[in-house]
Structure prediction request, 171 residues.
Amino acid sequence: FIKYNVPLDQFSFAFHYSLYPRNLNTAYRRQRHMCISDSYMFFANRSGNVQAQAVVARLVVRADWWFTTPTIFIQPATGMAMVHMMGLPLSTPWLALSLGLYVFAGICWLPVVWLQLRMRAMAQQAAQAGETELSPLYWRYARLWEALGYPAFVAMVIVFYLMVAKPHFDF
Prediction:
């Protein structure tokens, strides 16, 4: 990993308040949360500051439990209610693709939760011990965390597009 000296407080303020509008639907808010919390972890990991990594890992885990976990249940429930109100069969191509991508993103997310919990524990232990570097295992988990995060993020962006555009596919 390349380490960057990014002031997290300035980054988070700019990222959160200038790039994303408020009062959006659940899918977009979920995507925004993933982007923000994962960006904190991404940049904290490159800061080289074990104390910052420990704090950010703790907060990212907390944010995922508070925001992502409820959304995993609320978004499909409300989506299915809307599909029912629209009278669409689940075999509608854009809807079937959306559901498949949502499941794929969820399959990527489950190991990410475990990785985040482990990374948080390792970072907190290193910070409490006054260590200046994290273990190679932490960095292996961080690489895997990123490798699972990118396809999940892309899948959710496509799901958002499909839900908004509802494109017609000719198969």
